[in-house]
Amino acid sequence: MKAGATGEQPQSGVEAGKLIDERIASLGDWRGETLARVRALIHEADPDVLEEWKWRGTPVWSHAGIVCTGETYKAYVKLTFAKGASLPDPKGLFNSSLEGNTRRAIDIHEGAAIDAAALKALFRAGVELNLSKKGRSKTPLS
């Protein structure tokens, strides 16, 4: 793997999963619970998802390319979809980073309900887009 601009090596697989576990545990509040819930939904949506740890501590979920990242801030958990502007969002989950031509994000605030079915559909759409762009199998995720 290539080192990032900071010289830090990106992590993937089991090691990245462990680092994400540690992040969730270290938060110790609603943000950790929210990140854990989102992570579980992502794995339900795509059992073949690859977990990565990049950019000095950002959880990343990939399949044929980055689908989304999970950042934690004091007031919210942010899921940024790398190609969100190209994804259908019939349930209106995207509520942040709406001005750009590429990314879209979902800011999840304390106490906010997560529409599990809509989030999983959005993640699957991100995977399908990545697969179509990479010329890989266009077999839909089940």
Automatic annotation (TrEMBL):
It holds the Pfam family DUF1801. Residues 31-125 form the YdhG-like domain. InterPro entries: YdhG-like (IPR014922). This is YdhG-like domain-containing protein. It comes from Caulobacter radicis.
